[in-house]
Amino acid sequence: MRASTRRLAVTVLSALAAATVFTTPAGARAKGDEISVQKFGHISDDGHVTLFGTYTCRPSSPRGVQIQVTLTQDTDAQGTTRLGFGGEEAVCDGQEHDWSASAPLDLVHLQPGAASAEAKLQSASLHSGFALRVSYLAKTEREIRLEEKHR
User: Quick one: average pLDDT of 104-108?
Assistant: First the structure.
């Protein structure tokens, strides 16, 4: 029985792929850039909102990676409120890290209840002509619940 060249190539590639899978050390996996947001955020007595989550970014990520958050809440009385905050610099070492970001509620009205959160790992760099270029390494969106946090 004679095998076609195509079938032989597929067989060889499959064997190589299987050998690669089985020679990878246990527990080793390539982690990419990821960010998450916890399902609860806090509104404190002193007028701040705080969100929490985790992130991972690779050591090969650009310098100056930051965590940026956008919080959106729809209320009947106030309409839609959007608040952007963050700026914490990320440690890009391939490990998972916790993050938190807070912002004062001086200029916006947020209340306990349902909200939407978007978190991004972003990098900004200057290019020719002083043009600012922002790139996103990871992004997530989630429906969350804001709760009052008393000290």
Answer: 91
In this prediction, residues 73-97 reach a mean pLDDT of 89
H-assigned helices in the chain: 5-23
Alpha-carbon distance 28 to 38, whole Å? 26
pTM: 0.73
Tens-place pLDDT, residues 1-22: 444 443 433 333 333 333 333 3
What are the structural domains of the chain? Answer: 34-149 (2.60.40)
d(CA 110, CA 106): 10
Nearest to 57 by CA among 39, 30, 25, 38: 30
Closest by Cα among 132, 26, 37, 146 to 81:
146
Q: How far apart are CA 59 and CA 92, in angstroms?
A: 5
CB-neighbour burial class of residue 8 (10 A; exposed 0-12, middle 13-18, buried 19+): exposed
C-alpha span between 66 and 68 (Å, rounded): 6
Mean pLDDT of 79-83: 91
